[in-house]
Amino acid sequence: MTKRTAEILKRLDETYGTEYICYLNHETPWQLLIAVILSAQCTDARVNIVTETLFKKYDTLEKFANADLAELEEDIRSTGFYHNKAKNIISCARTLVQEYHGEVPSTLEELTSLAGVGRKTANVIRGNIYHDPSIVVDTHVKRISKRLGFTKEDDPVKVEYDLMKVLPKDHWILYNIQIITFGRNICFARGPKCSECFLQDLCKAEDKRK
């Protein structure tokens, strides 16, 4: 790890702390899995509003597995892309009930074999449920990692591998948590608050503002 990378991580730790935080409300691993599926192209805040009633109505994995597609679509409509999400949630729940005895698997291969689960979703589960070092590449992580010069890639999988090379394992999960907050408060996609940024002197962004 370079001195520059170490300094970036030190400042992130000092500013945002080192506590593991999950922004999606859940009480069980399967609830988190469903919440992450719902979060695609949707804000965590909106997902939390939807799941507050959703997880009361479908309070077991079996209820999701046996859900009526049209009814579930209406239940999750406000998260967007509700047809695909509903179909994937039912299929995913059925697989978990039938093949995994209701348990959410822990390996990347098993998780990505589930309907609606890609690497990002799998890594959220691995990091938050199983505390297995994993890097979650969302829009904030991709954008800010490019601005910091950690990657030049646009493909999330390539970004993930680049970050695995430059970040120490003990910061893989933490980096995502910190960068989400950083991206929401300072390093916006448009009009970032560069003058308020505690990483400005270390930033390599071409659109950096003085």
TrEMBL record:
Q: Tell me any Pfam family this protein matches.
A: HhH-GPD
Its transmembrane ranges are none
Amino-acid positions noted as binding [4Fe-4S] cluster in the UniProt annotation, renumbered to this chain: 187, 194, 197, 203
InterPro entries recorded for this chain?
Answer: DNA_glycosylase (IPR011257), Endonuclease3_FeS-loop_motif (IPR003651), HhH-GPD_domain (IPR003265), HhH_base_excis_C (IPR023170), HhH_motif (IPR000445), Nth (IPR005759)
Keyword terms of this UniProt record? 4Fe-4S, DNA damage, DNA repair, DNA-binding, Endonuclease, Glycosidase, Hydrolase, Iron, Iron-sulfur, Lyase, Metal-binding, Nuclease
Which CDD domains does the entry link to? ENDO3c
One GO MF term on file is:
endonuclease activity
Required cofactor(s): [4Fe-4S] cluster
Which EC number(s) are documented for this chain? 4.2.99.18
Family matches, as SMART domains:
ENDO3c, FES
Domain of life, per lineage: Bacteria
Catalysis: reaction(s): 2'-deoxyribonucleotide-(2'-deoxyribose 5'-phosphate)-2'-deoxyribonucleotide-DNA = a 3'-end 2'-deoxyribonucleotide-(2,3-dehydro-2,3-deoxyribose 5'-phosphate)-DNA + a 5'-end 5'-phospho-2'-deoxyribonucleoside-DNA + H(+)
State the family it belongs to: Belongs to the Nth/MutY family.
Name of the protein = Endonuclease III
